[in-house]
Amino acid sequence: MRDALIVGAGPAGLSAAIAAAGSGNGMRITVLDEYPRAGGRLLGQLHQEPDGSWWNGIKEASQLMERALRDGVDIRTGVSVTGLERNGDEGWTVWTNEGLFQAKRLLLATGAAESAIPVPGWTLPGVMSIGAAQVMTNVQRVKVGNRGVVIGMNVLAMAIVSELRLAGIELAAIVLPPKNALSGHASDPNRVFNSLLRFAHMAPNPMFRWGASLIRPSWLQRLVVAGYPGSGLRIWDTPLQLRRSALEIVGTDSVEGVRVAKITPDGRVVAGSERFVEADFVCIAGGLYPLAELAAVAGCPFRYAPQLGGHIPLHAESMRTPLSRLYVAGNITGVESAKVAIAQGAVAGTAMALDDSGGASIALSAELERAISRVKQVRREAVIQFHPDIERFREQMYLEQGTILRYRIN
After folding, report:
1. Among 52, 190, 348, 353, which is least packed by CB within 10 angstroms?
2. What are the two backbone dihedrals, phi and then psi, of residue 233, each rounded to the nearest 5 degrees?
3. Domain ranges (residues) in the chain
4. CATH fold for the domain made of 117-285
5. How far apart are CA 123 and CA 27, in angstroms?
């Protein structure tokens, strides 16, 4: 039986494996991932930091994996988890396509998945999620098309648009999704504009960044949206068309373009304003949500946290859950940046090592407190915030769930 089994070889899972393996306890650790290559969402990331340096996700993933392997971690890719069960207070049994694994402790670091926003015509070849376009471009080095349209405006979409433009891919427009029961606030120009202001610091143009810093009062935001130009504002040489909505993706055998229309500030289509935008691919950007199905299978209680992207398994700052010997880390606990996931992984790995020592190690207790403090610092300094008020919400959530800290992990 292994000392710890980690599901997910992304930033959180690899970081946890490194922390646990380097704890000095001699823990035997196995990491499983269904993808053929370790790294998770790190693999698709490539962006410039505020200090001018570049964040290369492939390089970061390689460094994490090499360090884990040096510490003796067993990393197995192409392995899908199909079920899991608690063995009383002895540990966990996990079923996979490569057989059965048993471990004293189980960490779920399964990351996040993209939300879909249905658009008429979205089953045509050439339609993909914005995350798929990122992976094809940055990981597989495949050009997704010659001229595209992005449907949806959120922090994930804007980050990936900049990466697609860096790769020399032409984007005809970024528009809002059609207003329907599933699109929610994503099709409301006023709500979307308010959210865009949160990451205006990522804009390449200093005038954009300066102007956005002045538009804080809600009345002024509504005024700006009401006067927003119909042709859009160009960012990364792509029209950001806040007052246009996609009505339908058009094509016979594959994408040929998108039918769009002007919309009012509250998202209603302006009659007679329809036009056709030629394109050979379409990216739909619906945002991310925590991929937490395995936590549900394990029987972990959940909490709905829209500030963190949806339903998340109940957990403490130490990444322990209320279930004996079960831990979580990374985007399964709420959608944040890869740097936060790495820091959370270190917390989870240290917590597992501390619990494996019987909770008696003063050195590991101190390291766990330092790791928790690092998560807060990384979160505070994060360039990308997927949702507003994450720091304040987490502080309140952990305070309300203070009783969870009393759960004893044997």
Report:
1. 52
2. -110, 135
3. 2-112+289-409, 117-285
4. FAD/NAD(P)-binding domain (3.50.50)
5. 47
Fill in the DSSP letter of residue 409: -
Say how far apart CA 387 and CA 118 lie, in whole Å. Answer: 22
Q: Which two tokens stand for residue 281?
A: 């691919």
- The rounded distance, in Å, linking the Cα atoms of 159 and 166 is 11
Cβ atoms of 159 and 135 closer than 8 Å: no
Joined together, the tokens standing for residue 195 give 């959210």
Q: What pLDDT does 377 receive?
A: 94
Kindly report the CATH class assigned to 2-112+289-409: alpha beta
pTM (predicted TM-score): 0.87
Widest Cα–Cα separation across the chain? 72
Can you say whether residue 328 is alpha, beta or left, with left for phi > 0 and alpha for psi between -120 and 50 degrees? beta
- Burial letters for 293-331: b for 16+ Cβ neighbours within 10 Å, e otherwise? ebbeebebeeeebebbbbebbbbbbbbbbbbbbbbbbbb
Q: What is the pLDDT of residues 243-253, one digit of tens each?
A: 999 999 999 99
CB 347 within 8 A of CB 20: no
d(CA 388, CA 229): 27
- Residue 150, strand partner residues: 174, 283
3-state secondary structure of 103: strand
293: which DSSP letter? H
What is d(CA 185, CA 49) in angstroms, rounded to the nearest whole number? 29
CA–CA dist 280, 266 (Å, integer): 29
Phi, psi of 370 (to 5 degrees): -65, -40
Helices (H) and strands (E) in the chain, counts: 11, 21
> How far, in Å, CA of 407 to CA of 305, rounded?
22
Distance between CA atoms of residues 260 and 180, nearest Å: 15
Rounded to the nearest angstrom, the gap between the alpha carbon of residue 133 and the centroid of all alpha carbons in its chain is 15
* CA distance linking residue 337 with residue 115, whole number of Å: 17
What is the reported pLDDT for 203?
A: 67
Q: Say whether 117-285 and 2-112+289-409 share the same fold.
A: yes
- Look at residue 209 and tell me whether its pLDDT is greater than 80: no
Which residue in the block uniquely carries the two structure tokens 């094509």? Answer: 251
Indicate the residue type of 268. Answer: R
252-275: average pLDDT: 94
Give the pLDDT confidence score for residue 260 in this predicted structure. 97
Question: Residue 190: exposed, middle, or buried by beta-carbon count in 10 A (0-12, 13-18, 19+)?
Answer: middle
The position carrying tokens 């495949």 is 142
Dist. CA 49–CA 44, nearest whole Å: 16
